[in-house]
Amino acid sequence: MSDSQLWDDVDAYFTDHLAPDDEALRAALRENEAAGLPHIAVTAAQGKFLQLLAEVQGARHILEIGTLGGYSTIWMARALPEDGRLISLEYNARHAEVATRNIARAGLDRIAEVRVGPALESLPKLADENPAPFDLVFIDADKANNAHYVEWALRLTRTGSLIVLDNVVRGGRVLDAGSTEPDIVGTRAAIELIASHPRLSGTAIQTVGSKGYDGFAVARVLD
Ligand code: SAH
Ligand code: DHB
Ligand code: MG
């Protein structure tokens, strides 16, 4: 058996037991597929992990950067109370439309909202609204801007908030210090920012699974 087949099978085992989907999550993936969106949503096991992080945070306000079809959005929004709020930023209008429908079908349209536009334009507008600090920020958009997104996350959070950065390993390409690929340059800049910032304490975890070999970074906002 190939490594990747084994990773798939183990993911399926854990997912069946610990992160079972339901009709709304299945429908979201079906609609993503039907609309031709790329297969880059988090896995169910990862979605459940984000949900658990939101619960541990006692989150009332969540910010997501990079919505795609709203699959990760649904997992996280389900951790929020009735009066909680999730704002998800998406550059691609078609992705945002699919996501908005998926979120509504999941019964979460009063909690989760998709805002269309490049995140680096949406973030200053959001900051101008003086929103309540976000308890959890999930960064999963264009990796080139990862360090900028971490900076924005710092401005929009509070002491004790959590910042999660997806796809920080990319099959090991993160190691390439000489890389000129924007996603690697951006991710390395974000890792170095987390490492050096006095108000962040973080780590990164490598993962394998049905989405291959990748990983995520988690950072806690300090005083
Ligand atoms: N979080 C989603 C996956 C996001 S995929 C999930 O797990 O279900 C990355 C998304 O980021 C894509 O939909 C892409 O269109 C969006 N994106 C890329 N560049 C962006 C930008 N500058 N601003 C906002 N969104 C962006
Ligand atoms: C890609 C983006 C993602 O957010 C992800 O989880 C996996 C892959 C990509 O752009 O290739
Ligand atoms: Mg991702």
TrEMBL record:
It holds the Pfam family Methyltransf_3. It comes from the Bacteria. InterPro entries: Cation-dep_OMT, SAM-dependent_MTases_sf, SAM_O-MeTrfase. The keyword Transferase applies. Keywords: Methyltransferase, S-adenosyl-L-methionine, Transferase. GO terms for biological process: methylation. The keyword Transferase applies. One of its GO terms (molecular function) is O-methyltransferase activity. CDD domains: AdoMet_MTases (cd02440). This is O-methyltransferase. It comes from Streptomyces filipinensis.
